[in-house]
Amino acid sequence: MDIEALLHPTDTRPAAKALVEAAMTAGYAPSIHNSRPWRWRVTGTTLDLHLVRGRILHASDPDGRLATLSCGAALHHARVAMAAHGWEITVTRMLQGADRDLLARLHVHHGAPADPAAAALLSMIPLRHTDRRAVAGTRVGPEALVAITAAVEAQGTRLHVLRSDQVLDLAAAADRALLSAAADPAWEAELTYWTGLAPPNTAGIPAAAIAGRNLGQRGDPPVTVRHDTAAVFVMLHGSADEPLNWLRAGEALSAGWLTAGGQGVSVLPHSAPIETIATRQAMRAMIAGDGHPYLLLRLGIADPADAGAPRIPTDQIIERY
Ligand SMILES: Cc1cc2nc3c(=O)[nH]c(=O)nc-3n(C[C@H](O)[C@H](O)[C@H](O)COP(=O)(O)O)c2cc1C
């Protein structure tokens, strides 16, 4: 679908066109089980981001934490596109008194000089993907880790690098949690649904992307320390455990992931440990109770040959008004 088809026929404003382009760029964002739980609404020079409750994974993500985090990643992708194309915008998150599923509103003010740092991130968006293969060999260097941490923290979320003893503890706790979750038929059915969508479906995770890799199947440890000998595990965390924090964590995830791509570093989120209270508490203890954990990430040295997941068609995620 082209941009003109998504614009109101009488709307020739470049700002409106830029917003539609930004929403299309956001379609590349990572999301839990590739569920794409967002919908964009373009009204003149305003772009609204809505959470789609029907796409929340109700068994494994009953609070919508990971769905909101996914929407945050889409929001950051849209912000990057606007900045890279030279538009000054304001972003209002969790609008007071508005529909609770209206997560953010982007409003264009005027043209501005294109932001070269945003342009560099924009060029990474189509290249970014989830790399589930084992990490061995070279370890992520300190410079890359500093750059990724700075990108995350610039979005108001903190990043903690796990010590090796913490990785082992978390692997054990997460393995126990996953085994009990996998005993729940609703949890198992949800995972089977999202990983079993065959082409021409454009949501869900294609079998080819997960063959031989760990996605939290029964009996697989979600943190694969035995294979990931050179991996660095990091945790996104912040001051509170509310939808606004999850949205900001998603923006930080996108910023950190795109920055990682530029540094030749691959990223694999591990959501299983955040899905159960016991492992969330174990993660919280690792940051000495300093705030709340949002997501565990595995960092490794990237292989540019790995392919990503398919995308939902644009007309299913953007509405014009
Ligand atoms: C909040 C969140 C949690 C995720 N958790 C996992 C996970 O536990 N295991 C996994 O293999 N991928 C996980 N992913 C990656 C998604 O499966 C991936 O983004 C989606 O399938 C689209 O593929 P792509 O990232 O290659 O574009 C997660 C992504 C997000 C945004």
What does this structure look like?
The protein has eleven helices and nine strands. Mean pLDDT is 85; it is low at 210-222. It has helices spanning 3-6, 14-26, 65-84, 116-124, 142-153, 164-182, 185-195, 207-210, 243-262, 272-275, 277-286; strands at 38-43, 46-51, 87-93, 102-111, 158-161, 232-238, 265-270, 292-301, 318-320. The strands form two sheets. Strands 3-4-2-1-9 form a five-stranded mixed β-sheet, covered by helices on one side. α2 crosses α3 (65-84), α3 (65-84) packs across α9 (243-262) and α6 runs antiparallel to α11 (277-286). The radius of gyration is 19 Å and the shape is globular. The longest helix is centred in the N-terminal third of the chain and has 20 residues, at 65-84. It has 321 residues and is α+β, with helices and mostly antiparallel strands. The structure holds flavin mononucleotide. Flavin mononucleotide binds at residues 30-34, 66, 69-70, 73, 129-130, 132, 205, 215-216, 268-272, 295, 308-309.
Can you lay out the helices and strands and say which pair or pack?
Blueprint: H1 3-6, H2 14-26, E1 38-43, E2 46-51, H3 65-84, E3 87-93, E4 102-111, H4 116-124, H5 142-153, E5 158-161, H6 164-182, H7 185-195, H8 207-210, E6 232-238, H9 243-262, E7 265-270, H10 272-275, H11 277-286, E8 292-301, E9 318-320
Parallel strand pairs: 1-9
Antiparallel strand pairs: 1-2, 2-4, 3-4, 5-6, 6-8, 7-8
Helix pairs in contact: 2-3, 3-4, 3-9, 4-9, 5-9, 6-11
The chain binds flavin mononucleotide (FMN).
